[in-house]
Structure formats: structure tokens, C-alpha cells
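Feature request, filed as a ticket because there's no other form

It would be nice if the structure record came with a short human-readable summary line next to the C-alpha cells. Right now we just get the raw output. Example of a typical job, pasted below so the devs can see what we mean:
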Amino acid sequence: MNFAKWIAVWGFILTGCGPLYPLTVTTSQDITARESQCDFQVLAIPPAGNWDEVGILSTQRETDDPAKFKTTVQSDVCKIGGEAVVTQVSADGTYVRGVVLRKARMVGANAASLSERGQ
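Raw output as currently delivered:
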């Protein structure tokens, strides 16, 4: 089999077996994985408070079922420490994108200052 056919066959296999919502990590901060079946919020709007974006879930084949969406992305969200996913829904009601968030981690002087005050 020539090289071009080999690439085409593997491309077909990989895209056919790929996840429904591939994950792209968008943070350079350390990632602390959570248990593989962790619970997280699926939201239509960003939550109040300080949150960090840690990843983007894009779509190849979307769903319009909220429970199926959550189940489909759960292992990826938990693997990167996600605590919420803010979804983008198309006009026909299908989930087309998700932004994975985790509560903001305090680093540097802010964390040291709170630690010194016993907080």
C-alpha cells in the first residue's frame, strides 16, 4: 500500500473512532486531575466569581441531549480538573462547544498573604 493510501486509511479510522467533543487544553498552569467520574456543572452562562479557563471542547458530531453531552465530555473535563463547562448551543439546540473552567487558584503574593492571616 502506498503512503498516501496508508494516510487516508488511518485518517478515516482515527476520525471515525474519535471522541464526540475533542478537548484542547488552553492553560499553561499545572493541571490537577479529578476522579474520572467527577461531578461538574454544565452552564449556559459563565458562573460568578473567579474562574480559570483550562480547556475547550469542540465538536465533530454534536448532540442536543444535555445528559448525553455531560456523559460524553465527563472524562476529559475531569482529567484536566474541570469544575464547570459553559456551553455554546446552536440555533437548532445542539451543543457545539464547551469552555472548561475550574475555580481560580490563588498563586504568589495573594496566596501567601492569606496564608499568613490564617485564611
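Something like this underneath would help us a lot:
The longest strand covers residues 95-103.
The domain at 18-104 is CATH 3.30.1660 (Dodecin subunit-like).
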